[in-house]
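Anyone opening a protein record will find just a pair of labelled lines. A complete record is shown below as an example:
=====
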Amino acid sequence: MITASHDTPRLLPWTAADGRPCYLVGDGHGHVSRVADSIESVQLGMAGDLLDHAADMLADQRATAVQLRFLAARLAESLRDVRRVAESRGARLPSPPYDPDDPVDDAHHDDPDVL
């Protein structure tokens, strides 16, 4: 579990009825945080299972176009879920300190394409 600071809202692994993102502000130890952790765990597990299924299906020469389109739709849904988990967890990580004496930090400090 990633511990959130009180000033960093946590992006939750679900959306509001109208599709807007839901956030939680807290210390990361409450009931809603535990439910979110559980849902993220299920989503990541399902993504792994789906990847295994996709590998099997893509190796099967008998897979139909309809089956592959269905697989692609489920993969897209899973990728959205996993991306949301990654965004949520990444937003709660502390930023690494900037070291002006480090040539790597200095060379890419203003480059938005370098993480």
Remarks:
- The longest strand covers residues 10-15.
- The chain has a mean pLDDT of 88.
